[in-house]
Design goal:
Blueprint (H helix, E strand, L loop, with lengths): L3 E5 L6 H13 L4 E5 L18 E4 L13 H24 L4 E6 L15 E6 L9 H10 L4 E5 L2 H10 L10 E3 L21 E6 L8 H14 L3 E6 L5 H7 L6 E5 L5 H4 L4 E4 L8 H8 L4 E4 L14 E4 L4 H13 L1 H18 L2 H11 L4
Parallel strand pairs: 1-2, 1-4, 2-3, 4-5, 5-6, 6-7, 8-9, 8-11, 9-10, 11-12, 12-13
Length: 372
Amino acid sequence: MKKHLIFTKLFDTGGSNSSLRSLVKVLGAENVLLIVEDSNEISFIDDIDPSGRLQTKVFKNLHGYAHLEYRLISNVKEFLKILWSLIRVIFLCARWRTSTITVSSVEPEKFLYFFWLPFLRVNYTLHTVPERKYTAFTSSTCNFRLGNQKKIIVVSHFMKNTIIKAWDIKKQREQSIIVIYNCIDKLPVIKTPYYNKERNRTVVSVGRLDNNKNPDTWLKVAQTITAKHQNISFIWIGNGDGQNTYTNRSKNQEDIKFIGFQAYPENWLKEAFIYYQPSKMESHGIAVVEAMSWGLPCIVSNRGGLSESVTNQYNGFLVEPLDVDSHIIAIEELLQDNGKATEMGDNSKKRFNELYTYPIFKEKIQALYAIN
């Protein structure tokens, strides 16, 4: 049976899972073979498709990166590893009678050498902003192989521009880097008005507790706001290495909670007052898109692809990641002006409907994969 082969890495949750889930939905779970390197990742499969129709395969010992920047003997050894990996992939495609493979990667350049596969269509979806290219072979691969059969898919124009610069992509190859925004494939039920001063208003954040998400600034802002205002609370949804640290730092503050991973963050978003994400860098930010789907005003940093979702003074505020005072001013402005908060929330919902719905995503994926 012909299958769409998708090489990926699965997590318990996150933006790459969300993007993959939407892709599998468009292609049809029964038509997809999901290929992972670690058998432990199979436990996360229900986050991609709980129907049981999605097939998975553990395919170990593929060479990860093509550097070819060593001494002659080392380069020959690496070349042979790359060649053997390509041959294995070709045989796998022949077995499943497919001419199209997809790489869904959170690690820039991993499996990028798949572009050298002959006669096969390769869609390389990257979810993480690359800081630089590893070697000149990256540029050569892209500039020789990008075209009708080989494309890079990214989740924001910021990522596209970053890749072009970091990987030295030639002008004539830029059109083979396609922007397809993340989407939310389940539209929320319209919620009732929530800007009521008599209710406890909640500022919600969703994401892994790591340095890039900027939890130190978040906590400073939360402590300042809750000390000055009544009936306001801050909730951070998501696990990470800093879970115990930040839980302990806020343990005596009832209005600040780090509640860890939650399978259904929408339970908090639908009751939230503001969505707040002060990340130091984001490729796009699926959690912001989900917050917009619930009609929330969003206060986010002006880094990466976040400014493609949030327009300053329209559906929220853009702030410098480490400028605590500007974060506090933005939150307080919405706390003190229900009319503006409501208007910005309405604008978030409008912008979501214009850019980030599943039908929009589906149409672009069908065009990319030439699905009728």
